[in-house]
Amino acid sequence: MFKILIIILVLFSANIKSYGAQEKECKEYKEISGSNYWHWQAYPGVKNFEDKDNIRTGRSKHSPSNICFTVDLHEVNDPLNRLIGYKIAVSELFNLHGGSIEVLKLYKWEKREKKYITALEQKILIYKSLIRSLVGTDITIDDQGEKWWHENKDYMNLSEDKQKLFLDAVAKKRKKPIHETNPEREISAEDFWIYSVSPAYEQTKITDKYIHGSVMTELSPYKFRVQKSKLNDRKTKENVYKSILENEIMYFKNVRESKELSYLKYATARLKNVTGLNYTDSQTWINWWDKNKDKLVLSKDGTVLVVGNP
């Protein structure tokens, strides 16, 4: 089920406008943890960073060019944060690789233009290369390699030069994890709205600043938190919900019936959470979408998409 979420994230990211190469002045500084920094440093990469007064500032290569980060240098220099960040990056890269493989199959079945297929194939090669460079061993980047990672990630440690991970055989033999393998991660509002409509989503706690939740995967819960203040933008939620609808309808239109049946229950549950409607077959959803897609807005109470003015 988690791979389905990754497919949605891959498709959703394809709909986001790319930002120009020209750097803009930082309008927002996002404070991140040391493990977040090393996660970003490993993937997707950081740039334009500088250190001053024990604070590092910079930009993620995937963030809008006017959004920058700050991180305490003491956290950056903590080897444990580097270890955790690298592990999070490898897990993310395996998920992106698997999701991209599924999207590639869909593109080929749809007979998409060659440029789209080539671009996705290049991304897949990048994911493979990054995983191998971080893991420090020539594992196969497929289902078996992902299985190996999940079986051994608890026992991965930093190499002596701190540039990659290695399997600590002693820790594995003793079944003594190097650190907590499933830390809670801070996510964006966009990702939260995607996860929140999943049947596998569970809200675990609300504090003054954060909403904490999880999505159950095949192996363990994916735990996360999001700043409550970032969920106030109605337009962000509306755009994410529309993208979820569009991607699900695209899937219904293009995937053969035999494959669709195994996915239908999950997809219709998500669509119900997005729209409040309870259609149970894909053709009804397709007809509804084709008729109303240009008239959808977020409801007054902000819970679902509705037809017409809220």
List keywords for this structure.
alpha+beta, 11 helices, four-stranded mixed beta sheet, 2 domains
Beta strand count: 12
SSE pattern: HEHEEEHHHHEEHEHEEEHHHEE
**Kindly state the mean pLDDT as a whole number?**
83
Q: What is the helix fraction of residues, given as a range? A: 40-55%
Structural class: alpha+beta
Q: Indicate how many domains the architecture comprises.
A: 2
Beta-strand share of residues: 15-25%
Tell me the Rg in angstroms: 20 Å
Order of strands, widest sheet: 1-4-3-2
Distance between the termini: 33 Å
Described by strand count, sense and barrel closure, the largest sheet is: 4 strands, mixed
Low-confidence stretches: 12-21
Descriptive notes:
This protein is of the alpha+beta class and 310 residues long. It folds into 2 domains: 1-182, no CATH class; 234-295, no CATH class. The chain is built from 11 helices and 12 strands. The strands form 4 sheets. Strands 1-4-3-2 form a 4-stranded mixed sheet. A 4-stranded mixed sheet has the order 7-10-9-8, covered by helices on one side. A two-stranded antiparallel sheet has the order 5-6. Helix 1 (2-14) packs across helix 4, helix 4 runs antiparallel to helix 5 and helix 9 (234-254) crosses helix 11 (282-292). The radius of gyration is 20 Å and the shape is globular.
How are the elements arranged and paired?
Blueprint: H1 2-14, E1 28-31, H2 34-42, E2 46-52, E3 55-60, E4 67-72, H3 73-76, H4 79-110, H5 114-135, H6 143-152, E5 156-158, E6 165-167, H7 169-174, E7 185-186, H8 189-196, E8 201-206, E9 210-216, E10 221-227, H9 234-254, H10 257-275, H11 282-292, E11 296-298, E12 305-307
